[in-house]
Amino acid sequence: MFAKRAMVYEPIDLPDRADLDDAATLAAAEAFHRTMKRRHTVRDYAPRPVDRAVIEACVRTAGTAPSGANHQPWHFVAVSDARIKRRIREAAEEEERRFYDGGAGDEWLGALEPMGTGHDKPHLEAAPWLIVVFAQRWGTFDDGTRYKNYYVPESVGIATGFLLAALHHAGLVSLTHTPNSMRFLGDLLGRPEGEKPTMIVATGHPAADATVPRAAKIKKPLDEILTILG
Helix axis angle, 152-169 relative to 22-37, nearest 10°? Predict the structure, then answer.
């Protein structure tokens, strides 16, 4: 919680510098690309547990993401309780049945066919952890007064990206899941009115027979995603 009295501008020296030469900068960039290139979206999870401390460290990393006015408009609910995961799966599958039974439209469903998805979501129970990401429309100062958050979708999206990278760096796999709608998650997880659920991230170790869709390995080449001017 922010203290209102601390919300003043005070410049300080940059506390952390990489200070790499050009060759080391390029090598670090390429090494990180090789690491992230090995990240896969996985639906098949091993029963092997994941220590709570690992999840806490990954969420702590997500919390370092930049955000509008540094308001950090996010909250993460990490769930390992089997009963709660079962309730999330049941509610999510109810929404997904409507989606796959025609609610999404033919074009959207056709786009999903190469991914092999459907309304059945066993990973929501099989994964040792579900991390539900919430976006906060407003925050509260220590004196109880409310303040508005800015660039909330952008900020939460960046933090979620940090989370996925941290989970992968920790040797885990993950799956992002966005049932339509997700309103049930706020009530189920006891979150306040001002928070909107944006994503469920299932995470854990991959099953021995885990698979990924071949189509998911097709990535656009650099010349299709980058324009350089100058």
Answer: 80
Q: Does residue 1 carry a pLDDT above 70? A: no
- Based on the structure, what is the number of domains in the chain? 1
The domain spanning residue 65 has which CATH number?
3.40.109.10
Measured at the CA of 180, the angle between CA 130 and CA 74, to 5 degrees, comes to: 50
- Angle of helix 52-62 versus helix 152-169 axis, rounded to 10: 140
Phi-psi region of 217 (alpha: psi -120 to 50; beta: other; left: phi over 0): alpha
pTM, full prediction: 0.95
* Pairing verdict, β 173-177 and 138-140: unpaired
Q: What are phi and psi of 108, to 5 degrees?
A: -65, -45
CA separation for the pair 156, 73 (Å, rounded)? 7
